[in-house]
Amino acid sequence: QVQLVESGGGLVQAGGSLRLSCAASGRILSIYDMGWYRQAPGKQRELVATIKRGGSTNYADSVKGRFTISRDNAKNTVYLQMNSLKLEDTAVYYCNGDVVSGGRRNDYWGQGTQVTVSS
User: Fold this and answer.
1) Three-state SS annotation for the chain
2) How far apart are CA 61 and CA 75, in angstroms?
3) By C-alpha distance, which of 71, 61, 84 is closest to 32?
4) Could you report the per-residue pLDDT of 58-106, keeping only the tens digit for each?
5) What pLDDT score was predicted for residue 114?
6) Distance CA 11, CA 33 (A)
7) What's residue 42's pLDDT?
């Protein structure tokens, strides 16, 4: 059984910073792409950033220059450093991983962590 567990969410003032972490556990052979997505109330889930196993990254235009995604392959962990947070960054943030386990390759999601940006 593969699990992705996020941590690091919370309440922060506009302009502040937060760092999210997501650790994958279980019988994992390999993880390809990992990423962060978010869902604000009344809106669809949207991509925030993704990172390939080799380190190449992709960001939503709304977070470019403010957020940085990184990963530690040895720890099966992905991070999201969020700086210069804005009110519109308020959402539940979900971790995603393209995981090979037990001879199969599947998409896994974490349970989500709340990020609230206040004025």
Assistant:
1) CCEEEEECCEEEECCCCEEEEEEEECCCCEEEEEEEEEECCCCCCEEEEEECCCCCEEECCCCCCCEEEEEEHHHCEEEEEECCCCHHHCEEEEEEEEEEECCEEEEEECCCEEEEEEC
2) 28
3) 71
4) 999 999 999 999 999 999 999 999 999 999 999 999 999 999 999 999 9
5) 98
6) 28
7) 94
The residue whose two tokens read 């380190």 is 55
Residue pair 93/113 in contact (Cβ under 8 Å)? The answer is yes
Assess contact for 69 and 14: CB atoms under 8 A. no
Residue 26: φ, ψ to 5°: 120, -165
Place of tokens 């804005």: 86
Closest C-alpha to 20, from 105, 89, 119, 74? 89
Rg (C-alpha) for the chain, rounded Å, is: 14
Q: In 4-31, which positions are buried (b, 16+ CB within 10 angstroms) versus exposed (e)? A: bebebbeebeeeeebebbbbbeeebeeb
> Tell me: the pLDDT tens digits for 9-56?
999 999 999 999 999 999 999 999 999 999 999 999 999 999 999 999
